[in-house]
User: Fold these one by one.
Assistant:
Number 1:
Amino acid sequence: MTDISVNDASGGYEASIGDYFALMKPRVMSLVIFTGLVGMLAAPTSVHPVIGFAAILCISIGAGASGALNMWWESDIDGKMGRTKGRPIPSGRVTRDEALGIGLGLSVLSVAMLAVFANVLSAVLLAGTIAFYGGFYTMWLKRRTPQNIVIGGAAGAIPPVIGWTVATGSVSIEPLLMFAIILLWTPPHFWALALWKRREYTDADVPMLPVVAGPKVTRVQVLVYSILLAFSSLALIPTAVSGMIYTVTAVIANAVFCYLAWNVYKRDEETAIAENYVPEKKLFGYSLTYLALIFAALLCDALIRSVGA
């Protein structure tokens, strides 16, 4: 990949296009694109392909803006943690000022263009999401409360609602339940990671629940939120967006999720240290598959309905 030379006061270094793209957290962006697309296609009103593509592009750019703002503010934390110290800013390939400029520029662009291509409601929701994640969560909430993930998860849960509003111009129970699924999925997903990587969060002085309240309390919370997650996803079954594929997938996927959460809950610390099997790692890995399965099933049912219409 072609490199773009960048220099700062500390010396010269090179940043590639890939480094700037990495600022936008492409993995998170891909999840946002997928859930936003499902929200749009599951809606009862069809969207013109050009408008739909433009809207999803705007949503993805908004997600990238949030990621850049997050990396700008958290570069000190990222430099202390093994899984993040290779990111563009702590590794010295991109400056904090560049990240801030990219984040702010993409924020304005994505919101303005979504208002043009879709509607004001969708643009307002996107603006609120960027402000919430890039500002409130990143700059204040994350370092001040062990409930950071619970509250901050709202930002990642909004994309299917935005997708739905692009198609319908309004909000109903179905996108709110999709919102609830992602919101309730976030705590067990991240707390499983925090249990697995607790030492890194301790060293970085981030008040994640395992660091502040201890592993035992966190394991209970993981199980509680997993059960709530199951109820929220199963609550979609009687709605218009659900079909046979989603029904079967939701039942099986939630059974597996709760089983893995139970393994995390019943595990004591001495056993966790003594054995190679790490249930938190298993739950964290499966949680990514779980969310993909749930929304892929919704997408399949939506496509089946569109063919039969």
Note: The first strand starts at residue 3 and ends at 8.
Number 2:
Amino acid sequence: MLRFSPCKINIGLDIVAKRPDGYHDIITAMVPVPWHDIVEIIPADGPDTVLTVLGRPVDCPPEKNLVVKAYRAMETLFGLPPVQIILQKIIPDGAGLGGGSADAATTLLILNDLFHLGLPKDDLARVAAKIGADCPFFVYDEPMLCTGTGTDMRPISLPLDGYHLVIAKPQGFSIPTKEAYAGITPAQPAVPLEQLLQLPVAEWQGRVKNDFQPVVFSSPSPLNTCPELYAAMLGHGAVYASLSGSGSSVYGLFSNAEQADACLASLPDTAIAYRCTL
């Protein structure tokens, strides 16, 4: 059984408090984006579950890959037989796009269907929350306002239909999430994010912020072209541009298709880029 696994962008990301358990409380809107990995699960040829990764390289051993963790969670709950998982990576890692989390959620959805488990999405989301903070979002795959550690969610309506999206990630550059958090002083926003998102999209710039953006943009790495990519988005007419998640992808929302196309064409070869219409 095969499914396409989307990514996401964050529209606004406020880090509001550090929790006693060492994690952080956040407020963010997550929006699914049809830039896909591909997950296929078939019966195993032998007695062991096997992961095969194609496409972009993934720098972690199989048992630490989130798709295998997703399988192990379901195996523990339901005594599943061994399977072969084929993961085709297209979404870049270390991009703030949630590709690995999406792959884990997609694995849960496939296993639920493949073995006729009949779990509703809310139950799958509870399993997903134990794998990673972004994972439950991808079970639902619709715009959500996410709070707490990111696993408390409710649907949010955003006026994005028809906007043109360009995403760009500097090749070879990312910042570990723990390091990105270390540069943040949590604080309550002056205006709640949900209130700001009720404004027209053209009024978001300068108001809807990502707290990680100053930290990522100030990285001295010679591979850090985030500020330049961000400036290219705005320079080509994006009505809103931002870092996604903890980076290192930046994105722009364009009301004009020609401006989005021109922005995409202007990006350097060192950027991994994607373009779609929402």
Note: The first strand starts at residue 2 and ends at 18.
Number 3:
Amino acid sequence: MSFISEGAELRGRLAVEAQSGYDEPSLATVGDYLALLKPRVMSLVVFTAFVGLSVAPGSLHPITAFTALLCIAVGAGASGALNMWYDADIDAVMTRTARRPVPSGKVKPGEALAFGLTLSGFAVVTLGLLVNWFAGALLAFTIFFYAVVYTMWLKRATPQNIVIGGAAGAFPPMIGWAAVTGSVSFESVVLFLIIFFWTPPHFWALALYKTEDYARAGIPMLPVVAGDAATRKQILLYTLVLVPIGIVPWALGFAGMLYGATAVVTGAIMLVLGWRVLRESRPADRAARNLFAFSILYLFLLFAVLLVERGWGGLMARLAA
């Protein structure tokens, strides 16, 4: 019997068991509910949204700016809670996620669902009423895309789940931009594209050394369906697309020399690591882990330098005005 069929049977049993817990209150702590929000993912979402808000043209009252970021953070957390509610069956099978609040029994499925829906409504309505409805609508679409399109459909249906679903993680800088301007522009689309093309090599590198975990859970990640060799090639191909897009803000005058130098140097390192993943016979031992770890630093540095170079001074001037 294959890992996938075994995972499907186990998920079915867990789903039946989970249903019995909807009407029983849990003894969850505040920490368990915070874990539902996926705080590490939320921190990246808030940071990229903050950069989008900071570099956008126009002015925003400090309280309004804080409200926008808070709503984006809550919306991201709501998406995480809805994801954990729906994915409790497969999370229980994977060693990486088995200790999450729902599969571990600390939070009941119904509570996680209610928590996610309540936070989603609060975040969207508050952002719409206190900032602007375009940003609120974009946040609502992002939550829907992650919770429904990615979690409920793409994740279990296609090895392209990360490629298409990666759009959900790429929207935050656009939402931050929209909070200031009430619209999107070419610059915000570029920020979206950087994260969008960063997502596949980042997560496929993780999937290379977690293949058995994903297979056991029945998730059709690319290494499970197409094998390691095809995944390594795709990682390098997406990295080849990502690096030039990362340089675009500098090439088109949207960012300065410091950003350009950072994008070129870190992009070169990404390409070297992607090439090592392709060439190394056992990428799970070293190369894939190195690429996964550095890709986080790569994205952080691009947005941090853009913030320092273009956004921070302008934001401080607007807040002080």
Note: The CA atoms of residues 22 and 59 lie 46 Å apart.
Number 4:
Amino acid sequence: MTCNEMVNYLVEEFTKAGLPEPKSDACLLMDYLAGMNRSALFIHANDPLDPETEDKLRGAAAKRIKRIPLQHITGFQSFMGLEIAVNEHVLIPRQDTEVLVEEILKEGASGLRILDVCTGSGCILLGLLHYMNGCEGTGLDISADALAVARENSRRLGIAATFIQSDLFDGLSEDEDKQKYDIIVSNPPYIRSDVIPTLMEEVREHEPMIALDGYEDGLYFYREIIDKCRDYIMIGGKLYFEIGYDQGAEVSGLMEEAGFKYVKVTKDLSGNDRVVSGEYSLAR
């Protein structure tokens, strides 16, 4: 089978299975498993695939048809120009989350201490440390399995970071001099419990529920982080959240009630509310 024949085969199988982006999935599998990006596919369209690669692609196609996320098949997702390793223990990084990182990068500061709460794969923290100068970063997560992924990403990308197993802030040092951070960032679980059964099968069945479920109103973790972060953030420090498209007013209201100033909501590329940020102040 030639490269072009394999792409056509994959597209046909994915189309029959009702996958939403059959051509994109086919090309990504060819890229990751056959080392053929779109340019290479054009040049080598009529070249035969070796039997081992053909078998790998057919096996990957069978998994994708079962709605296993493409990123769980390839093992990676591109985020902020970095190849982030992922598996069933962490959320797959989304393009929407790049908006969160980009908002922080607009600060343009260096030498900051950054805390990432609910770090998962570590993609947010590692993206920030990669593009900011002289910063120190710590990621917290309750899941030991997620932290194993984050540490592997840190090691493989050569980006130094500390990762601590912690239920929100509980695992941090009690030494006050080591507690204060210039930036606290979080993409917490924010989907309402009653919405989870309506999610795409790839998300509902294959991504970690602990990273999705924001409980009854989806705001539980925002309340907890806003309330508890005051012991860990510098006066004048910034708090940044990723939010659901319909949570901008509620989360910004929670931050303002807690004494944060200059609270703003930033939209994603689709025009949906995606990031809430504010500056911590003692005045309430």
Note: The chain has two domains: 3-66, 89-280.
